[in-house]
Design a protein that fits this description.
This protein has 80 residues and is an alpha+beta fold. It has one domain. It has two helices and four strands, in the order H-E-E-E-E-H. The protein has helices at 3-14, 66-79, and strands at 21-26, 29-39, 46-52, 57-62. Strands 1-2-3-4 form a four-stranded antiparallel beta sheet, covered by helices on one side.
């Protein structure tokens, strides 16, 4: 993921309304990001759901770190 892509995603996710979906390609994979109404167990913050539509795989369900998990998924998938 380029630094510009990372900055865009992190900024966009900060402002994302509940239930809205953001679909974006990252290095040959297509991801969908969504802010859910599920609260984090210890933080009370809303959780993000991130799925790779290319691999049909759930990548992330937590309050923090969705962009880092996207990077990790791309690296692992491309190494297969």
């Amino acid at each position: 993921m380029t630094p510009e892509q990372r900055t865009y995603l992190e900024d966009r996710l900060q402002r994302m309304p509940l239930g809205e979906q953001l679909r974006t390609p990252v290095e040959g994979h297509r991801f969908v990001f969504m802010l859910t109404n599920l609260d984090g167990l210890h933080t009370g913050r809303s959780r993000f759901l991130v799925a790779c539509e290319t691999c049909s795989q759930l990548v992330h369900v937590a309050t923090t770190g969705p962009v880092s998990n996207v990077d990790m998924h791309v690296r692992e998938a491309n190494a297969r």
